[in-house]
Amino acid sequence: MNSPLAPPHYRLALLSRVVAAVIGGYLLASFSTIFLSFILPSSLPEAVLGATLFSFAIYTAAIVWVFAARNATRAWLGLLLPGSSLAAASFILYLAGAAA
Amino acid sequence: MKQTFRQSMSWLHTWGGLWFTWILFAIFLTGTLGVFDDPISHWMREKGKVSETPQTTAESRSRAVTLAQDYLVQQAPRAEFWSIGLPDDEEPALRVFWREAEGKPFQQRRLDPLSGTEMKPGSTRQTEGGHHFVHMHFELHAGTAGIWIVGAATVAMLVALVSGIVVHKKIFTDFFTFRPGKGQRSWLDGHNALGVLTLPFLFMITYTGLIIFWATYMPAGILARYQGNEDAFFAKLTEGPAPRPLQRIDAAVPDLVPLMLRGEAAIEREARFVVVEHAGDRSAAVRIFGRFDPDAEADSLVGRNSGTALFDAITGETIDIQKPNTVRGGNVLATQRTMNALHFVRFGGYPVKWLYFLSGMAGAAMLATGAILFMVKRRKKAGDEFGSATPRVYRVIEAINTAAIAGLMLACIAYFWINRLLPLDVTDRATREIQLFFAVWLLTLAHAALRPARQAWVEQLAATALLCLTLPLINLITTGDWLFAALVRGDGETAGVELSAIAFGLIFGAALRHLQRRSASEVRATAAAPIVEGA
């Protein structure tokens, strides 16, 4: 009965995944909202709302991904790559909009 | 963690589910009771005994508005808002609400609609009624913090639904499988069947729940595209008038009666609320809300509203008129409003409300069976997930399970009893009722911590069943009204509450009998064991 707790590196990896899921997933959903608000084909307020309605599905998918990934590093990469692409694309669209 | 997708989802479903299941059960149970918040309030305020209140007239409403305005000028000549709730069938008092500024506390008083004096405690049975369950459901009576906790639990619910589907790959076989009386296997079958049966409902109710508070939960779009200016954003989105910033120039609010009458004429409805935004400031505006008509457009999902009229308070200029049951804004806004209407069951009347009630109870039962299954599995064979602390952690989980499921059900029915037993002249009576509800819930946790696990379950279920079954009796003793009288006068709301309580009492009673028969057969099995060994 007195088996030790899971080894420290396992617990650290688990903590890393929880942080990735809760905070990383939320940030990914946030950037996807901003990106979609630029490209959805409707008026700006409606695009903002539509993008937000969709964001909760993205958040859910991100959390599932984090716990399905083979290890914590891959989990993080799977959030950071699409997240930073969406942020960069949004910034370009913002500059294009400001120039126009 | 080298494992298959299904294994990792199973882990996520078990542990993600466990840590959120207690709060989710509370959200589901109180939300499901909240489907019938109006009948519950009707029962708690003893509306069944009151004969029809006389129709209000333009004169009675004008008089009430004048009295409320006099009172509010005395209390808060400058305020972020004043709100005047005119008397109606459900609430015969004249209600005034105000807040001096953002961050200051909300104030609320009940006034006599004929004299304008504050109502003395004890003149009526003051209660939050069924709204208590609704508030518990979306904010746990904890304000903004509560809204965020409920939001986090709701996302966890979505994740648990997705991971649950992955885990139960034989989803339709599972649906037709129920093996009763087989301990752990039966709990799992029940959990699966309930989950699969209500899956579309669960997805709908969970996702639409997040959508109601979309701007709070996911402000990224408004932050990035509107610099966080919600007022400007919503004015554009809803095609409403532009926001009116505070001017900080003193200006007394003129007589509200003419504006109320103009508003009523413009929207062709009686006024229900008269709201003054920025009272005492040059930017003050008066908004007239029409009385809700439950029969108008009852089969429509979008655009059901009671109409509003907005005036500049100082000049009397008309700023905006929205007629009842008209739609504004584009298709995306209509989508969001449809999702709200789906969540609030604002369509279909009683048949759909009952469908939601049964689905919501099935969802709550699915959560409860999941939590129980976690412990049933580990009572048999410990998982040692917490090293040497495992038995202690299990004991804590078992106690929380009991209090979160049986204890909350006990506290909910106790709330009905508290409503009847708490003296009428207690100050802040409505708040006291809710505090006592939480006190009962806390006691069930203490009880679950002190008693052996099975005893705690049995005793709390027995108390719940008893309070449910005898609810009509306590009503008869304390108010002289009861089920039979309600049935005779055709008061379906009062009778519905008491008949439902009896039905729940019978279900809990049956569950108890099942538990007792199970423990009796376990005793027999243990007694028989040595003989078998000897043979």
From TrEMBL, chain A:
Keywords: Membrane, Transmembrane, Transmembrane helix. The chain crosses the membrane at residues 12-41, 47-68, 75-96. Pfam families: DUF3649. This is DUF3649 domain-containing protein. It comes from Zoogloea oleivorans.
Automatic annotation (TrEMBL), chain B:
Coiled coil: none annotated. The keyword Transmembrane helix applies. The chain crosses the membrane at residues 12-36, 145-172, 193-217, 354-376, 396-418, 434-450, 462-488, 494-512. Keywords: Membrane, Transmembrane, Transmembrane helix. The keyword Nucleotide-binding does not apply. It holds the Pfam family PepSY_TM. This is PepSY domain-containing protein. It comes from Zoogloea oleivorans.
